[in-house]
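Table S2 (text version). Query chain:
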Amino acid sequence: MMIRSQRACRADAMPPALPFTYVVRKPSGAQLWYFRHPTLPKAVRIPGLPGQPAFHREHSRLLSEAVEEKAAREQRQDEASIRWLTEQYQASDEWNRLKPSTKVSYKREIGRLNEMVGDLPFARLSKKNVGQMRSKVIAGVVADREAAIAKRKAEDEAALAAGRPVSKRKPPKPTNGLRTGDLFKSVLAAMFSWAVEQEHMDSNPAEKIKKLQRRKDVESYIPWSEAQIAHVLREASPRVRDGVVVGLSTGQRLIDCVLMTKANAFGGEVSVFQEKTGNYVNVPATGPLVELIRRRVSVNDPDDCDRLMVQPKGTPYSERLFSDHLRDELDRLGFPDLSFHGLRYAAAGRLLEAGCSLAVVSDITGHSSVQMAEKYATARERKAQAAAAMEAAAAKIEEGVS
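Corresponding structure-token output:
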């Protein structure tokens, strides 16, 4: 028989039929029952003993309140989480105003965020936290790309060893992940800015974080010269030539050019919806574009796509696919520094040469400011002036030699 000290008290295990309770037996033999739940700051004494109606009524009341408080606490915790905030953002008017293509990229970055810290309270996020998460995103992108490169190399080596042709798909290229990291930061900054406006957050922890990748300045895009334009239109494959004509004749971004349809071209104009600005502009159809429109409208094949820019079999171009095809053609023709975006310089320059004001150029090309349109429009002029200066210098050198 166990001998107890006169001063000792013993707490027995919780009876299975009475959850969250325990009993303390005094040396005198008296039983004191307590209710202890994680939602309570301390245990609560239950008057009476098990079996007595008053005891069970009080126990049921305490248990019911504890369960309700637990559910409310979980709800409050969930509403304070980053995952809850991202769900609210994606149900907001701010989100609905985004372009479909933008939503796709935003969802991808929001998914990365939730995967890392979705269950944590968003109120605790700091600038340092955002920077650390961006570093993780960059490291993950680099690792995934390296794995893809290694996999493709192994597949090609296996194909060669087996005497099979290697894949014609372009192999993945190494990446530093900075572009994805900056996009991740930009998405967080946009979402937290909305959260501040909605008074969910007091401040935006991603607001003043600098981008890692320097934004391409307009000067980094090389404008196409008239000689380069003529050479590409003469030597490039038809699938690329039509796209160059559309880009040069309208001065629009590639995404807007690939979406232009035959229905957009009527009355000597091409009606363009600009994805970035959300505006419609009417661009006069001149020169090669008139011939392209006439040729595309005359196609009566029921399987033919209604786009102005199509592949040889009539299927529509995606922005990425045309960009790849153009890149291949420009490399083949010896113009590795040219890009589709450089056509916008050429188009802006032609508009200025035709007597259009900078405001008109800005409206047509869809630039947010006249200053940006001026940079585009004058870039080709500076390139021509530099070429003329070089020719003049070479002529003087030849005169001196002779």
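Notes on Table S2: The beta strands are 10-12, 21-25, 31-35, 44-46, 265-266, 269-273, 280-284. The two ends are 126 Å apart (CA to CA).
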